[in-house]
Amino acid sequence: MHIPKQFKQEKGTELLELMREYHFATLVTHSTSGMEANHLPISLSWQEDKLYLHAHIAKINSLWQFVAESSEVLVVFNGPNCYISPNHYPTKQQTGKAVPTWNYVTVHVKGSISFIHDAAWIYQALEKLTSEHESELDNPWAMSDAPAPYIDKMLPAIVGIEIAVTSMTGQWKLSQNQPTINQLGVIQGLSVSKKQNDKTVAAMVQAQLQA
């Protein structure tokens, strides 16, 4: 991923926060059958100060058969993004020199992949992923709520995925290349939008400006 210097995000805490918040990610793999992308909910796990990504696929998905163990993969976490109109820039009114662009936040993670067939490991990974998403609900569902024989029957139809992270790269393209007056114009323009993504990006541009 090409990252201009002003857009590079090097704060590990910011990268991890985005990965946790926007955890439905794209897993990109390469094998003898070519390139493939799978879209998966991802959970983060620390083991002895090393970061791992955990996910799962249906066993009928042939990914685990064609991608070699320990091969390098790419996982893309996309955060909020939106269109930026030149009309948001006050300087455009003065010179007319402005073109549309797109603001976005993304994290690219590289690592080595392993496929897990152990039922206990898969159960634990599913339990962790579920509890993360159910925790904010008034009446959270738990794996133990389902009959044990029912879960035991489903586990063999799932393959676990573990990715040992080797690098993380983040790009926060939030109008940093514009003068302050235009960044403030972007914040104002996006804040009054009816689109939630626009409002979210506006808040991120403001936070970036104040950092």
UniProtKB/TrEMBL annotation:
Coiled coil: none annotated. InterPro entries: Split_barrel_FMN-bd, TR_PAI2-type. It comes from the Bacteria. This is Transcriptional regulator. It comes from Psychrobacter urativorans. The lineage of its organism: Bacteria, Pseudomonadati, Pseudomonadota, Gammaproteobacteria, Moraxellales.
